[in-house]
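Researcher: Good morning. I'm working through a list of sequences from a screen, and I'd like to move beyond sequence-only analysis. For each chain I'm collecting a predicted structure so we can compare shapes side by side. This is the next one on the list. No need for commentary yet; just the structure.
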Amino acid sequence: MTDTGSAVRWLAGLDEAGLAELFERRPDVIAGVAPRDLDELAQRLRHPMSVARALRALPLAHVQLAEAVQAIGAGTTSRGKLAQLLSGTGPQHRAEVDWVVDDLVAWGVLAADGERLDVPRALAEVFPSPLGLGPPVRDLLRDRAVEAMRRVQIRLGVACQKSRDDTVDALVTHFSHAGNVRAILIRAPGEVQDYLLSMARGSRRPAAAPVDYDGDYPDEDDGYDDVLEVVTSYDPQSYHRRNTAMQWASEHGLVFAGPYSLGWQMPAEIALALRGPHYRAPFTPERPLVLIRPVDHARVEVDSAAAATQFADRALALLDHMVRAPVTSLKTGGIGTRELMKLAKVTAAGEVATRLVLELADAAGLLEHTEKTVTVSADFARWRADDPGDRFAELLAAWWAFGGTPTQTRDADGKPWRAVGRPGNCAGCREGRVVAIETLAGVDGAAEPASLAAAAFWLRPLAHVFEEEIPFATVLGEAELLGVVAHGALTVLGRVLCDGDAKTLRAHASGLLPQSADRATFGADLTVYVAGAPSAGVSALLDSAADREGHGGAVTWRFSPASVRRALDDGTTGTELGQRLAEIATGDLPQPLRYLLSDVARRHGNLRLSTAVSCVRSDDVALLAEVAADRKLVKLGLRLLAPTVLASERELGEVLTTLRKAGYFPMPEDTHGQDVGRAGTDHAPVALRLVRAGVVRAQPAPADPRAVAALLRRPASAQPESSTEQQLAELAVALTVSEIRQLAHAIDTQTRVAIEYRSAAGSITARVVDNAQLADGTLYAWCELRRDERAFTVERILSVAAVMNH
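Model: Good morning. Structure tokens for this chain:
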């Protein structure tokens, strides 16, 4: 059930323009299936998921006031009580409090009737321990026996009532007055007073961030550590004194036994009263100033172009490498630290830059995950054929919309985080990244990082990048790697990114990066370099026959006998390779390179390997005798079977690798004597294995706020709109009408939806599911957190909300 009465009355007083303005602020309430009437709209406005989203978009003063509202408790409060609790004095302070209250009303978070404020119960889920306090009295009385509550009333001299609800209301009213609480404390024994004051003043971190319902999260803990007083050592006498004191306080309603008798809980109203009349909750209506210093804008732009060019080059080199060598993935999916370091070595980049490339390429749909490997996807060929600026702009847009922090290396438990395998989609992390860059856009110069972080935090205090496990510096580091920030200042590229116009971003990136190069310059020292970004054809050719060494404004490769042999192993001939290299050369091929191609081609395949008994065959008797006598090959146990045949008991692959390391040029062949090269093979990625997690569907267009506002002014039918809705109405006992309609819509349209689910073991998790099917009271769907099919019993689904797609 939801407390929607006051919200419905407020909504009824809004005209179509007012409703449309509300929908602009709270677009999630009309996402999915549009609300049918004002009552359903009120249910969505007061839904904990929606309230959490709204607060995540608001500055610190709004979050502080909402937390204070919940801390006062008792369901309703007043502007005067808020102004008294929040730090600040004078008419200006009251005006600031009133302005924030009015803005929260405009956002639909609170409802106001003059001085009186109506507090939605959803705030209790958003702020389970407001200001470090325990739950309100009303929540703690919810499961208490009526007889126990009446015994408290008798001790306190409160008149007893007949019904349970009236009894709860009477106790809530009594404890909401601080004078009543202090009067009880005065009558308490000295030791009881000491314990109670200690509990009331015990500080816990306020403003706990609300759950991000646009993403997936692991199982939640039971939360006992936040609300229970934990005894860390056992002393019999201290235990006895403490237990006696808590028993007295419990009999007078000042503390309540925790779940399963694991400790004691002090209601929020009691703790506030015991903190005294001088206690003030934090309230920061003004944003901190960002400290800046002058900066050379010309140098900023030069370094921005250099960083963007370097990142684009690294991305191209890494993905081109993955075409030839797919990366082995972990059993649980994603790329582990060992493989990540190998890739970083290949591209001459650090682990951070390599991880950033992989994450953004994956987010842009350029990677394909199979059971054992991660390689490029079918869309990579399209991306590879684009201009360098377009390629870079696509990766930059993926960073701007990324649901997480790409270069975060460890999870909340401190365990290493695999690349391209993180669960879920965190809109809170994206919000923090965006607000950090947009805050920097508001200053002219280089910002001092600490003051920039403080200002950004004030704007979005519930964004995740301000938590300890995702340092603010991590976001700025990513921005510097991409050329969005340089020398502490936002670049033109960063400002274009903030503007959000994709066409302008591509145009600016194209002017920032050099165009694709189709020609290469060959040196007499067996090196070759390409000025700018090599085209797909040039890169593929040089990668097949040479080893990439340099990156940046000019990409460099070096030829060696082993690299040329690699090209011949792929099925080409020395003559063909020379012709193809000459086609891209700016001049004649140097003589040392021609000699190298001729020599390797002459020697290539002189040694023949057979899979039958690991034989080494050659028509060159002297060469075979040399191999048999080579001490570097002793471990192969070579035996001369005939003047032209050597045999080994080792596996063919080991013999082939060892001979090549020793400087020979063997070539495998089949049982018929035919070369077993890779000629004629398709070097495109392996065949795509279509899985539901990788299917990208066009998301439905967002609803037009004015159109929805107009529809809400028309009479609506209360009848279910689909058979799915009818089935869910019978099965989903914990869901409201609005939630049933949202879930039915997601099933019928095969779109994503967020749910809260209680497992058979009793744990509650937040999930985002997709492609849901309903059968026999069970919801079968793809779970984005687990990246697998999951079955959810409908009656254990606790809440449903639309997913906002960024």
